[in-house]
UniProtKB/TrEMBL annotation, chain A:
GO biological process, one term: transmembrane transport
The organism of origin for this protein: Actinoplanes philippinensis
Coiled coil: none
The name this protein goes by in its record: Peptide/nickel transport system permease protein
Protein's cellular compartments: Cell membrane
Annotated PROSITE patterns: ABC_TM1
TrEMBL record, chain B:
Compartments, as annotated in UniProt: Cell membrane
Xref: PANTHER family: OLIGOPEPTIDE TRANSPORT SYSTEM PERMEASE PROTEIN APPC, PEPTIDE ABC TRANSPORTER PERMEASE PROTEIN
Family as reported in the entry's similarity comment: Belongs to the binding-protein-dependent transport system permease family.
Location (main, coarse): membrane
Membrane-spanning ranges: 26-44, 95-116, 137-160, 209-232, 252-274
Name under which the protein is recorded: Peptide/nickel transport system permease protein
């Protein structure tokens, strides 16, 4: 187990290093940055000397490889550089916007899991075949509706027509609920599909038939046997679905005008604020990698059989 | 959003529960109809509307949907139905370019990695892993920073991002074929590597790739529309579905049709694409 963990941690660090290098390479291929553009524009009022001072301040006068090495050494210490637009440290900008995004994605995750569980149970346990078929269609519907459409229509009908929820983020739970449900739908689709299929596979196994033969009820079998046996694929998928949650939060925050990391990155793209874009990419990759690492670590606790191939 | 593909692949292995689905066929025909209409919109929009998608008519601002203006008119008096029809070209061409690029890059990387193995495979394999562990949408946004704003740029960004998924799939298909008897036989009989890849290996990975293509097409439509919605894709006044929804968001309090109709169009087309892809997947694995 320990060796497994160390190897996975090493892989995670490798991915982070590669993500940093990749985003650095992509962004440094750009023919100019916000600062150079500002200096070059004739109405900036900057002299050549003050332009040089600015470039030195942001470290943009150094050769690329030196910028890269310094950047990576600083990033390892949690220093992500300065925003080219506001001159604030990128990690401060992230720290300011992160709580809003965490609240949104956290609640969305719960909504998504809950919704997926309801659909998966309904697809497998509802008595009427017609109702089961109705729920079976839900995941593909959710997967086909773009987040921005759900969000805009929710805002339009729930907020402006029905007046049920506030149209701007006033910090209340009701203001958070609509964006969270919007975002929750994104991950509910794949989770429901896999959980539903997994329950079906488990229920068709011989030991479940034996339990039935011994007279155990459906509810008892589900709680004691089926649930744990069919939750492993869901957990693995949950780690992967986290990437979709991050992507969806960018769109959702834009729709509901929430000051989160997603809106930060969209603004940074519009102003060519490269350090901020890179900071957000690094933060979300770190989160994504850590979540998947946590899932990998948690898997053996749910199903010890997954360790058989690893340790031997 | 490659997850849906994985989720689908996982559900596909399960045996079909019901063999007879009277409504299933009707659904497939309906989906095919929706996709066909959308494709025709993209190819020949002037067959479906005689209006000009860019013609500004201040006298006709904010007309609600009617017999003359099916989807209403926008803040500049442009006919929304016409803009949705012309928007199909940007959205569908974008998705087509994205998927084509993803298949091309993915096929080259996957074939090279799977066929030559060894160090080549390790390097490409690691690179694929890295790209897949960066949240895809953010990776696409980073490429957009580099390329600038536009439908084509957004399409290239989405295509490069999803090429990793194709590369992984094609690599595993090539590996499978490489260890098969018929490829061994072809090698022994002295066929050139290129001929073996072209005649034996790639055709055998075609079906699996096709299933992923149909899934990725729907995803590409959503991603490109989402990028345009964020202002990072198509730029005004070009009609594009995501941008149309975004244009309408300033008026959602009173002019709901401006967001409703373009939004429902995206949903209908993606739903139809996904339904067709699901149907093809089911037919592939009896």
């Amino acid at each position: 187990m320990r060796r497994y963990l160390i190897r996975r941690l090493g892989q995670a660090l490798l991915v982070l290093w590669a993500a940093y290098s990749l985003s650095f390479a992509l962004l440094s291929a750009l023919p100019g940055d916000a600062i150079s553009n500002r200096i070059a524009s004739p109405d900036s009022g900057l002299t050549a000397e003050s332009g040089a001072v600015l470039l030195r301040y942001y470290g943009l006068d150094q050769p690329l490889w030196e910028q890269y090495l310094r950047g990576i050494a600083r990033a390892a210490r949690g220093d992500l550089g300065l925003s080219l637009h506001t001159a604030q440290p990128v990690q401060d900008l992230l720290a300011d916007t992160l709580p809003s995004t965490l609240a949104l994605t956290g609640l969305a995750l719960m909504v998504g899991i809950l919704l997926a569980a309801v659909i998966a149970l309904a697809v497998n346990y509802l008595p009427s075949a017609r109702l089961r078929g109705l729920f079976a269609g839900a995941p593909s519907l959710f997967a086909s509706v773009p987040t921005f459409v759900v969000g805009i229509l929710a805002l339009q009908y729930l907020s402006f027509t029905a007046g049920l929820i506030p149209s701007v983020d006033d910090g209340s739970l009701t203001a958070l609920l609509a964006p969270a449900v919007t975002l929750g739908l994104v991950i509910a689709a794949p989770l429901a599909q896999v959980f539903g299929a997994s329950i079906r596979t488990t229920r068709s196994q011989p030991f479940v038939h034996v339990l039935h033969a011994k007279g155990a009820g459906e509810g008892y079998i589900f709680r004691k046997d089926v649930f744990r046996n069919s939750s492993l694929p869901v957990l693995t998928l949950l780690g992967l679905a986290f990437g979709e949650l991050i992507a969806g939060s960018v769109v959702t925050e834009s729709v509901f005008a929430r000051d989160g990391v997603g809106n930060l990155v969209v603004g940074a793209v519009n102003t060519q604020d490269l350090p901020v874009v890179q900071g957000v990419v690094l933060l979300s990759t770190t989160t994504y990698v850590l979540v998947n690492l946590a899932v990998d670590v948690a898997c053996p606790f749910i199903d010890p059989r997954v360790l058989v191939g690893v340790t031997s | 959003m490659t997850l849906i593909a994985e989720a689908e692949a996982e559900t596909r292995t399960a045996p079909p529960r019901r063999s007879r689905r009277p409504l299933g066929d009707a659904g497939v025909y309906l989906a095919a109809l929706v996709v066909a209409v959308a494709l025709l919109w993209a190819v020949a929009p002037n067959l479906f509307t005689s209006a000009d998608p860019l013609a500004v008519q201040p006298a006709l601002r904010f007309r609600p949907p009617s017999a003359d203006h099916w989807f209403g008119t926008d803040q500049l008096g442009r006919d929304l139905y016409t803009r949705v029809v012309y928007g199909a070209r940007a959205s569908l061409t974008g998705a087509g370019v994205a998927v084509a690029l993803a298949v091309l890059v993915g096929a080259i990387l996957g074939t090279v990695a799977g066929w030559f193995g060894g160090v080549t495979d390790s390097v490409i394999g690691r690179a694929i892993d890295v790209v897949l562990s960066i949240p895809g949408f953010l990776f696409a946004i980073t490429i957009v920073v580099l390329l600038g704003f536009g439908v084509l740029q957004a399409a290239v960004a989405v295509g490069l991002t999803s090429s990793a998924t194709f590369a992984r799939l094609i690599r595993s298909e090539v590996l499978k074929a490489r260890s098969s008897n018929y490829v061994e036989a072809a090698i022994t009989s002295g066929a050139s590597t290129f001929a073996i890849l072209r005649r034996h290996v790639l055709p055998n990975s075609f079906t699996a790739t096709l299933a992923l293509i149909t899934v990725q097409f729907g995803i590409a439509i959503i991603w490109i529309a989402s990028l345009s919605f964020l202002g990072l894709g198509a730029q005004p006044p070009q009609p594009e579905w995501g941008l149309l929804v975004s244009d309408g968001r300033n008026y959602i309090a009173s002019r709901g049709w401006l967001t409703l109709w373009p939004g429902l169009t995206v949903v209908a087309v993606v739903l139809a694409t996904n339904h067709l892809s699901h149907h093809l997947g089911r037919r592939r694995t009896p």
